[in-house]
Structures are given as C-alpha cells and as structure tokens.
Amino acid sequence: MSTPLALEVRDLRCRFTDPAATALAGVSLAVRPGELVAIMGESGAGKSTLLRCVNALVPSLVPAECSGEIHVGGMPVLGRSVGDLAGRVAMVFQDFEAQLFSTNVRLEVAFGPGQLGIPGDEIARRVAATLALVDLTGYAERDPSSLSGGQKQRLAIASILAMAPDVMLLDEAGTDLDPLGRGELYTALARLRRERVTLVAVEHEIDPLLGADRLVLMRRGEVIATGSPADVARDPASFLRCGVRPHDLAVLGDRLALDLPLDLEGAAEALRRRDVRPRILVSPQPARSTTAPILEVEGVGFAYDGGPPVLEDVSLRIHAGEVIALIGQNGSGKTTLAKHLNGLLRPTRGSVRLDGVDLRRIPLERAAQQVGYVFQNPDHQLFAASVEEEVAFGPRNVGVRDGKLAARVRDVLAAVELQALGDCDPFLLSKGDRQRLAVATVLAMAPRVLILDEPTTGLDYPQQRRMLDLFARLRAGGTTVIVITHSPWVVAEYAERALLMRAGRLIFDGSFTQLVGAPDLLRSAAFELPPATRLGYALGIAVRTAEELALSLGAPPRPDLRARRPAGD
Amino acid sequence: MALSLYLDRSSALHRRHPLVKVMAMTMLFVATFLMDDPALIAPLAVLVLVATAASGALPNLWRLRWLIAPVFVFTLVIWTIFYPAAPGSAAPHREAFRFGLGMALKLETFLATGLLFLGTTTVEEFAFALTRLGVPYRAGFVITLAFRLVPVFLESAFVVVDAQRCRGLDFSRGRLRQRIARYVPVIVPVFIGGLRRADQMAFALEVRGFSAGRTRTTLPRPRLRGADYLLLASAVALMVGYSGLWLHGVGRITPR
Fold first, then answer.
1. Residue A330 CA neighbour count, 13 Å, CB half
2. In whole angstroms, what is the distance from residue B62 CA to residue B67 CA?
3. How far apart are CA A552 and CA A234, in angstroms?
4. End-to-end CA distance of chain B
5. What is the distance, to the nearest Å, from the Cα of residue B160 to the centroid of all Cα atoms in its chain?
6. Do residue B202 and residue A364 have CB atoms under 8 angstroms apart?
7. Could B216 and A114 be called an inter-chain contact, meaning their C-beta atoms sit closer than 8 Å?
8. How far apart are the first and last CA of chain A?
9. CB nearest B209 (choices: A115, A373, A382)
10. B192 has a chain A CB within 8 A of its CB
C-alpha cells in the first residue's frame, strides 16, 4: 500500500466576496510526507490564499466561496474550522512579531500544546526537543521581544512544531529577516527536513529554495509551472511572467545558451571547461563629487539612555546626486546612523552637519525639508482620507499653500506614478502603492537627500523594480538617495556607493566595484552579493547583473530581462 | 527598547505561587485603602519598597518616575488645598496636609504594589491565577494580552511620532487644542496598525489551537510551598490587623 499524501489539493477554487475577487482558479497540489514544496509568484497570485485554505483560515475566518478538495493526512479540510485543524496543520506568518505573545520562550512554545490538552510533562519534553531543533536551547527563559528577527521566526516555528503538525506552512517566513536571520531560518528548515517534517513554503526568492523537492510557480490563481526547482528555474521567462526575480545563473545560462548548474562552483567550473573567458567591459564610473558635501558626519557615537554604544566613531560625507546603499545585519547600527542624518537622533559624541551647520542647531521640521526620511513600514505614516491629502500634509506643515501646494502634490504623484489614484483612500491601496505613497509624502517636502529604510521589503519583484526605477529617476533629477537594504541585487544594480556597518562601526565606505573586491569584509558582516556578481568576481571581473556578466562572456546584446510592469501593481 | 514591566529575576517573590501573589496583593490593597493616616500607610509603603528592592524590581519604579513623582505632588497639593476642614479649626492646614500626604502615599502604595506584582509575575502566571479564581480562560487571556500589547502600541506610537515629525509636524507649537489636533496623524496610524496586528494575532492564535475546544493544560506548575503559605498568612494578618484598626476608628481622618 502506498504512503498517504501529507497534503492533497484538488481543483481548488476560491473567490473572495468582499471585495469580489477570484483568488484561486483550480489549483491542484500533492505533497508527500517529509517533502519541502516551494511556492512562488507575484502579489495576488494566490499563494497565501492557498496556504490559508489548507489550514481553513479561508473560508472559516476570512469569508470566501471555496470549492474543490483539500485533504491533510487523508482528512478532508473544507468545511472544518481552524480549531479542528489545530495540531494537524500549522502555519508560520511573515510578521513574526504578531505571532509571539508570551513572556518567555519556554511559555511561547508551551502555548500551542497546552491548547490541545497535551499533558504537562509531555509539553515540557516537546518544548526542550523543538527548541533544540531550531537551535534555541539556552534561550528558554528569554523574553521573545529581546531576540533577533531570525531567532523570533525560529521561535515561531518551534511554537507550532511543538504541536506535532502533519503539515507546516510557511507564508513568506523569511521576508522580514536580514540575510543572517534568513540563513538561520533555512538552516533550521533543513534540520526539519531531516526530521521528515512536511513543509510548504511561500517565498519571493528562489536562491534559498533551490534544495526544495518541488517548486510551484503561480500566477493569477493558477499553477503556471511545477517541477524540481533546478528545472523550473532554468526558464527565466516563466519566472518573469509570474513576477518572480529569476535566478542569476539561470539568466546567464539562458543568455549563453548553456546548461549551467545553479551553484557558483558548478557554474564557474562549467564556464572554465568551455573556456569561456570574460571580456572586461568598461562602463563609465560616476565621478566623485567635488562640490561641498550636503551632510558631514564626524566621529559620531551614540547610545540609547545609558545603554551600550549603538554607533561608534562613524565619519562620512554625503554629496549631491549620490545613490548610496547602507547595508549590514539587523542591529549593526544602519537605522540609527540614518536617523542621525536628519536629526531624529542626536549623537552622544561627535557631530552631524547639514550644509556646514550642526544639526543640533536645526529644528527637525526644518532639517526634514532638506533630508527626507521614509520609514520602513508605510502604515506608520499614512492617516489621511485621500492620497492627495496625504501628500499635501507635509508641505502644508512647513507653510506651502494654495497653487504651489497643488502643483507640488501633482508633480510628486506623477513622479511616483500614483496620479490616477489621487482621490483613493490610502489604506485601500496595495502594499506596493502604499510604499510609493509613503515615499511621495516625504518627496513632497522637496528634500535634497532622501533616506529610505528597507523600501523593498515585502514587495514582489515587479513592485520592487517599480520602486527602484523611481529612485533612479530621482537620482537623475539630482536627489541624493540613501537606501537601507538587505537585498543584494538592489545594492548591485542601483548603488554607486556602499556603506557597510558592523557592530555600530562603519567598516566599509567605497564604490560598488571596491565592495565586490572585499569578499572577506562582506562575509564578516554576513552580507552576500548576488550570484552573478560573485561568479563574475570568481572569473576576475566586477559585474552588477547577470546580463552584464553574459555580455562580458560574449553573449550578443539583447533587450534586458526586466519584468513587465503589471497593469494594476 | 524593553517596554514590558516583567523583570526576569529569581527572587523569593518571583518564585511564589501566582495565586498567592494575587491574593496577597489584593489584601495589601485593602489594608492600604482602609487607612487615611500617613503614619499608618507609611509602613505599608516601606514594606512594598523593601519587597521591590529585594525582588530586583526597583528599575520599574525608576522607569515610571515620570508618573510616580507627579502623582505624589499633584495629589498632595490638591488634597491639601481642597481638604474640607471645619471653619475655625485649630490647625486646619496641618490636618489638610496630613490628609493630602495620606492620599498621596495611598496612591503611591497602590501603584508600587501593582508594579511589584507585574515586575515579579509573568502574564501567563497572572492568567493562571485569574482562572483559578474563577475568571473564564478567555477573559483572563484578554486581560493578560492587554498587558503585553500596551508596550507594543506605545513603541509603535513612538515610531509614528518620529515619522510625522519627519513630515514637518511640530507637536510643541500652538495652543493646547491645536496640539491635541496634531495627534490625529499619530492616532490614526497607531489605531489602524493595532487593528492589523490584532487581525494577524487572531490568525496566529487560531492556528495554535485557541479555539480547538479541548481541555487546556499547561507546563507542570510548582505546588504551593511553605513560603507561599507564609506569605499568605502574613498578608492575611496584615489585612486583619489593619481592618481591626479601621473598625476601632484608628487611621481614619474624617473631614469635619
């Protein structure tokens, strides 16, 4: 007799009623016990809805019309409540903060089994076993809020793993993590696979999921492609069609018409075997500005209210028209440094000068007109009844009125391509639109320097492209753009200059080419450049994209492989 | 920034059974409530302070100094001024001051007792104690979750304030009414963010079996020990003693 499937979905259709929208249009999926299945696709493809149907959040808590069949371990799911499935189907969400509500790690893990009526001694055994599995032994008495992002997400996994589910669903569990946290998460998942835990993971990036048993690409509620990740990934066009960034080495293989392995060593070896040698393409280097700097940071140190130092002896200068990536692990001091650049934080040592004047002497609302700061979560600043009102709020605060205000709102909305949504309620926009609106609200202050804290987190590839194209346009208009980011390809494709932080210190300040030549430094800060850049480095050249590498390896020029912009974002 | 009031220590008070701690706190509240005379409230305040120091929970008092100090001064001044002493009383001002001091000490003792409890008891222990006292599990859970969420909302409010200051919003300008109006751009995002988080949290709770409808269990809990009985007996003695004083009219200050 064959082993029953851990999860089986047959012709699942799901339609939300308010607002009316078809989320799933006949999805089928079969997952054997112990498999890891990865699901990818752009926002709105139906990935999360599929997971939520499997654990009955849809339709039992989120009203929808669903048809088809879902079986978990042979048990039908449709028609049951989430409570019925608790302990059989578990789910880890993207927002790890909202999943943790206990005083310490031990109690967090014990919560789920306690709800299922597991005897106390067995709960204690499971707590110890699952914490070991996610490498959190020794943290049992820690307050969850004191853990790093990666530790929090692993705690969320442990807390559902302790319920011994048949299937574990991960809904973009790595999205909000820094590279180190993401690495820890996937190490933990690899351990779970060895323990034969069945995993279904939705993600935006292919790299960490190359080792999955199967990859499913979704678009508009349908499965577009399915198969082994290496096979599916070899077709970059289908990735782009589904709004997913294709793997660099797949793009390279496609451009060179070679069957390249998707690991660096294998790809480098395959290229050497075929004697493919890189040609150094000389692209114009942006000239270092000789004008007076806008911002000067001199020996800045900072500590929160008697705590340990968060910044130590940081010095740098920022000029007009630069595009700068500020990178480093969470907790390395990136955001703290950025908040010093417009006076949100005052240094405990050293100084920050704006046009030669110490920022301590400039009120924040005046500094904000020169140095804009867009917070990571757009929902932290949106409040108005319409998009136009939202954009007008900042300039109105600093005395811009009447025709000048209307003109500025119009120009800014055009710059972020939201002019058609001026009357809309900001809270009803998509995440990508809300993110661009948040940028618009700060742009409306007409700053010379724009700081953005992780502006692409949580956005799909087309939305990220759209956001980054906006920065390129701003830069062309002379605005200095400083992007705090964990995304390697954002750094590679857009940054002229990189600032690398580690443990409160600025350990690198230089051009992108110089950054490529400092792999040890990058490794020490747990930051990895994209595969194409690393492969290029292994071959002796500095490239930003797979396309650049392909050209240097002799591929004929062709239109770039960027995703088409989706009509509705 | 840690905003939760619980302080993870291994003091004797931390180790006491949560049910005993809830009962002892309630009895201390009653004893304090019965007294008006600062001379009789002061020993209770000192007792709480000593217990706070012994439990390593003094940092909570320091963190909330912005609340504790104004409460003391405001209460003392208001009651001293408005104490309804009889006209022609020999020493109306002294008695008013004594009454004001008693009220200020009383409020501070309430506050410090509550902080001591929250500093030494996890919200899960609190919920467990409430359940043992007959409060439905869900109600107890909601109460304890509120304790966890208030700091989270505060933290979110700080971020929103910073985000709006970056859009030129100046909270220090203008008259009181204008300043209050300026908090609308803070309140809306905090409120909407709170709703979104509540939604997410509800999903997470459901997935973890909150509505599974089974008999709930917990990690093995320590049973009542000798020290728990001692604490309970001390609290009972304190409450009975102060009730006796109150019944005999001792410690009361009655406005004439």
1. 15
2. 10
3. 21
4. 50
5. 26
6. no
7. yes
8. 48
9. A115
10. yes
Assigned token pair, A194: 């060895």
Q: Which of A142, A493, A190 is nearest to A323 (CA)?
A: A493
Please tell me what DSSP assigns to residue B45: H
Q: What is the DSSP letter of A455?
A: T
Mark yes or no for CB contact B208/A163 under 8 Å: yes
Tell whether A120 is within 8 A of chain B (Cβ). yes
Contacts of A162 in chain B (CB under 8 A): none
Q: How is residue A231 written in tokens? A: 């096979």
- Distant-in-sequence, close-in-space partners of B79: CB < 8 Å, separation ≥ 6: B96, B99, B100, B103, B104
- CA B138 to CA B144: how far, in whole Å? 10
Q: Which of residues 347-376 of A touch B (CB under 8 A)?
A: 363-365, 368-369, 372-373, 375
Residue of A nearest to B138 (CA): A115
Tokens describing residue B221: 């809990």
Cα A474 from chain centroid (whole Å): 22
Per-residue pLDDT tens listing for chain A (569 residues): 566 899 999 999 999 987 788 999 999 999 999 999 999 999 889 999 999 999 999 998 889 999 999 999 999 999 999 989 988 999 998 888 888 888 889 999 999 999 999 999 999 999 999 999 888 999 998 888 888 888 898 999 999 999 999 899 999 888 888 888 888 888 888 888 888 889 999 998 888 888 899 999 999 999 999 999 999 999 999 999 999 999 999 999 999 999 899 999 999 999 988 887 777 665 555 556 667 899 999 999 999 877 889 999 999 999 999 999 999 988 899 999 999 999 999 999 999 999 999 999 999 988 999 999 999 889 888 999 999 999 999 999 989 998 999 999 999 999 888 999 999 999 888 888 999 999 999 999 999 999 999 998 888 999 899 888 888 888 888 899 999 999 999 999 999 999 999 999 999 999 998 999 999 999 988 889 999 999 999 888 889 999 999 998 888 887 554 444 333 33
**Whole-angstrom distance, CA of residue A128 vs CA of residue A145:** 20
Is the ipTM, as predicted for this complex, more than 0.95?
no
Q: Is the CB of B167 less than 8 angstroms away from the CB of A397?
A: yes
Structure-block tokens of residue A521: 């430094």
Mark which residues 2-61 of A lie under 8 Å from B by CB: 55, 57, 61
Look at the pTM and tell me if it is higher than 0.90: no
B219/A107 touch (CB, cutoff 8 Å), yes or no: yes
Is A115–B214 a contact, with Cβ atoms under 8 angstroms apart?
yes
Report the alpha-carbon distance of residue B182 to residue B202 in Å, rounded: 31
Contact A99 B122 (CB under 8 A): no
Could you say which of A83, A369, A380 has the minimum Cβ distance to residue B160?
Answer: A380
- A–B interface: beta-carbon pairs under 8 A: 183
A29 strand-pairing partners? A9
Q: Between chains, do A110 and B1 touch, taking CB under 8 Å as contact? A: no
Provide the pairing of β-strand A222-227 with A295-303: unpaired
Nearest to A312 by CA among A499, A500, A504: A504
